[in-house]
Every structure is written in structure tokens, then in C-alpha cells.
Amino acid sequence: MKNSIRKERKKEIISGLYELSQSEGLENVSIAKIGKHLGMPPSLVMHYFPNKRLLILGLIDHILHQYQLIYKPIISKMENQPRINPELLVDRLFSRDWNLLFDDGVFFSCYAFIFRDASIKREYKNLHVKLRMTLKTLLDKDEVLMNGDTGLLAERIFVVIEGAYYYLSMMDDPKTYDEKLKIFKDQVYELIYSEINRLEQPARSG
């Protein structure tokens, strides 16, 4: 029971940090502000998170949990399917649902700490590794792609995705955004279909 209460309280505090970071910016959030926002004494916040660094580590863990949700529709669709649907996969990977799951401004504010804190850098690395591993697991479900290097394919796909999100976050004009988005999606389609064609070639030749 105690562990359950502790877990819920920590989740509540991290949610409060996230909400304040959205409206005020992570750099402007203090433990005192979190306490006021949640209607609890700062001493209680510090009981669970003695310093802001630990709060940020908790927030990064929250980011990972939220980002993993983007894969849920693909996983459920593929449960009884021998082949992956590239269109569904690419649409989900580039979906604006990422923005609904987690605020880009908070994500990049957390990211800036990797240059000053080795632990935060390690946690961000773990976050990106887990996202790649989840994608690899999806690619491994495809009866053709599973015969290739799905880890390398997942890595190449994420190089495009991460570059795309960084660049697209600067696009204010919807038309320009959609044009650039199509370019990045086409790049991922090319990666997937090129690998499928490469793996199917020996079968066709035989």
C-alpha cells in the first residue's frame, strides 16, 4: 500500500512539473512553484524529489512512457499479421500525435541538460535506445524484414525521424510543414521498401 501511494504521489509531482514546464518553461520551474501548483508544501515535494535534477530524471522517464504509446496502434494491428504495413508504420512514426503525447518545448529543454549532467545524458541515451528497440521489435514481426538487419534499419529510420522533428519544429507555415513532412516520409518509405526488395531478390532469382 505504501509503495502504491508513493508511486502515485511521484507521478502527481512529475505531472505538475510537466504542466508548469509547458506554461512557464522548465528553466523557470522551482520546487516551490510545483508545490504551489499542486497545493502541497514544498517539503513534501522534496521528500520525493530532494532536488531538481531528480525531478528532471523522473520527467525523462515520463517522456519515454508517453513516447512508447505512439507504437500501440501498430502493435495491435500487427498481432495476427505476417507483414508490416509500411503506410501505417510511417504515418504513426510521423504522426502529430507525438506532439499530443508530449510537448516538444519540454522535451528539448530536458535535452539541453545532457551537456551538463552525465546521468541525464545517460537517461536520454536509454530513452532513444528503447525507442529504437521497440521499432526493431516491430520490424522483426515482418516475415521478410526479419531476415535482414532490423536493428540497422531501425537506426536509419530514427536518424530521419529525429532530424525531421528537429527541423519541422521550426516550420510555422502549414503548407511548408506538409511539404517537408512528405520529403521525410518518402525517405523512410525508401529505406523500408529498399530493404524489402533486397531481401526478396534472392527468392525471385531462385
UniProtKB/TrEMBL annotation:
Keyword annotations: DNA-binding
UniProt superkingdom: Bacteria
Pfam family, one: TetR_N
Gene3D superfamilies hit by this protein: Tetracycline Repressor, domain 2
Segments passing through the bilayer: none
Domain HTH tetR-type, chain residue ranges per copy: 7-67
DNA-binding region: 30-49
A single GO molecular function term of this UniProt record: DNA binding
Function summary: Represses transcription of the icaADBC operon necessary for biofilm production.
Assembly, per entry: Homodimer.
Name of protein: Biofilm operon icaADBC HTH-type negative transcriptional regulator IcaR
Species for this entry: Cyclobacterium xiamenense
